[in-house]
Amino acid sequence: MKRLNRIVVAGGGTAGWMAAAAIARTLGKAVSVSLVESEAIGTVGVGESTIPPLVAYNRLLGINEAEFMRATQATFKLGILFDGWRDGTDRYFHSFGLTGKDHWSAGFQHFWRYGLERGFDRSYDDYCLELVAAMSAKFAHLPDDRMNYAYQLDSGLYAKFLRAMAEKDGTRRVEGRIARVELDGETGHIAALHLDSGEAIEGDLFLDCTGFRALLIEGALHAGHDDWTHWLPCDAAIAIQTESVAPPVPYTRAIAHEAGWQWRIPLQHRRGNGIVYCSRYMDKDAALDRLLSTIEGKTLVEPNFLRFGAGARRRQWHRNCIAVGLSGGFMEPLESTSIHLIQRAVLRLIRMLPLGEISERDVAEFNDQQMADMLQIRDFLVLHYKVTNRGDSPFWRYCRDMEVPDTLAQKIELFRETGRVFRRNEELFAENSWVQVMMGQGITPAAWHPIAEKLPDEELGRLFAGLADQVSRTVAGLPEHAAYVAHYCGTPDSV
Ligand code: FAD
Questions:
Q1: CATH T-level fold of 6-48+154-225+310-358
Q2: Which residues are annotated as a binding site for 7-chloro-L-tryptophan?
Q3: Of the listed 29, 77, 411, 454, which one is catalytic?
Q4: Which of 22, 74, 116, 252 is at 20 to 30 A from 199, Cα to Cα?
């Protein structure tokens, strides 16, 4: 049997280096890894907010957290603060934590909702440690990972950090522009990448990490694309970096505006800012004006203008090519899911790495699993636009009135009527994420699980007071986030 042992990574953005570093570290000399990238083309240059599974990814690769945070100027992240999504003036927080205490038969929201009926009007937020800590700008590592967190980081620096690791582990980096992709006349598989320099890079398995260009998976193999822009109509963004004007907080902000939203992501040394908008309802000049008039602090770079369309590559693995990163599809960064999808693709590929001939069963399994991840994330993002009382602009009226996928409609209506949410097939966003966002966007369930009524008012009151008290006492004992980051990374206090 001919062994599959030459892996070629096309592209060296976050996706390319996350893939190369993980494969080289996990498989060592069992495979050879080459990565081609072009400094002249560069990377997309955005992507700063992440979600908790990245912590596990880094641990899997044996990365020292403090070293990684120093290298990427990272801060800790406990969730996202959403401004103005429900009616233009509201705020809610989607945290990475759990809220209150679930019973096996019913989530805490049922007890909270029944409590509301009985006159206990304490906010649902008060029972979530990560949320209260974030809003108090506090953070610490707690024993047994009791505080669930992610990072806000400079993804360019992350790629650089991983590059050093990958090269140390034997990855060969080739600088140059891929001018042509050669296909095998018989199998239609990719045989080699031809560079401007004349060099040809042959391989058995090719990872397309060429970003929005999708040079291999689409350019050469025409894997097809599913368009989701009718559900996620934002199609443009402008990113800009500014100096920090305040100590970094452990959360990202997503501030809605009349045709999309803006992000604010505090790193150690600067702040990432950007505006996401729908070009049907806002032009580039208006978007830039809005961004520049709302950012704080001196700008550090020229604005970076980006165009995109929500959707996914129909086949993420096709023949001997796997799309990783933006080449596999894109959904706006509202819940910071792109780097996560890179991680999922890379780990999934390592699990399914062929020994010799590629099995079509592996390919089908990979594609099903990767697409399931993307569809679940898609539904979760669409939720933020669909469930809103905003009708103050054509953009929001479009979102409010649009038809949504049946899978999402079922989830929304089930929650609205019964307060129930179910996490299916290990989906990324668990029950508490759905509950926080659905309530934050304006749904109060009409009913609750009957088990909540088992508790007499007195006991219910004791339960609520005990849980909230535990959260507030824990938060009171936590250090300030900015000071903790500086201490942990051994750097002088950030601004
Ligand atoms: P790129 O960074 O574009 O890298 C492509 C690589 O391919 C480069 O090295 C380039 O040189 C190389 N290349 C291309 N063509 C050729 C060629 N012909 N020859 C040789 N090399 C070539 N994700 C998050 O998780 N969190 C966020 O907060 C977030 N925010 C985002 C905001 C915006 C506005 C956008 C658009 C994306 C955001 N993302 C975010 C997504 C994130 O930026 C990407 O998922 C991540 O950077 C990975 O990009 P990539 O490596 O696939 O592509």
A1: FAD/NAD(P)-binding domain (3.50.50)
A2: 77
A3: 77
A4: 22
pLDDT band at 470 (very low <50, low <70, confident <90, very high): very high
Neighbours of 480 (CB within 10 A): 18
Angle at 438 between CA 434 and CA 440, to 5 degrees: 115
Structure tokens at 227: 């368009």
- Indicate the top mutation candidate among 8, 9, 44, 48 to test ligand 1's pocket, ranked by most ligand atoms within 8 A of CB: 44
Q: In whole numbers, what is the pLDDT of the chain averaged over residues?
A: 96
Q: What is the pLDDT of residues 53-89, one digit of tens each?
A: 999 999 999 999 999 999 999 999 999 999 999 999 9
pLDDT at 47: 87
pLDDT for the residue 493? 53
Q: What is the side-by-side order of every strand in the sheet holding 311-313?
A: 225-227, 311-313, 329-330
Distance of CA 430 to CAs 31, 376, 387, 425, Å? 36, 11, 18, 10
**Structural domain boundaries in the chain:** 6-48+154-225+310-358
- Are 488 and 248 contacting, i.e. CB atoms less than 8 angstroms apart? no
- Whether ligand 1 lies within 6 angstroms of the CB of 343 is answered as no
Cα separation of 403 and 405, whole Å? 7
Instruction: Quote the CA–CA distance of 51 and 196 in Å, as a whole number.
Output: 38
ipTM: 0.99
Atom 53 of ligand 1, nearest CA residue: 211
- Residues annotated as binding site? 12-15, 77, 326, 335, 339
* pLDDT confidence of residue 494: 46
Taking only the tens place, the pLDDT of each residue in 328-363 is 999 999 999 999 999 999 999 999 999 999 999 999
Q: Quickly count: other Cβ atoms within 10 Å of residue 300's Cβ.
A: 12
CB-based contacts of 142: which residues, under 8 Å, 6+ apart? 474
Residue in this structure with the two tokens 């008012």, named with its chain if needed: 457
> Residue 233, Cα to own-chain centre: how many angstroms?
18
Rounded Cα distance between 82 and 79, Å, is 10
Specify the pLDDT at position 242: 96
> Is the CB–ligand 1 distance for residue 252 below 6 Å?
no
Please write the tens of the pLDDT for every residue from 383-405: 999 999 999 999 999 999 999 99
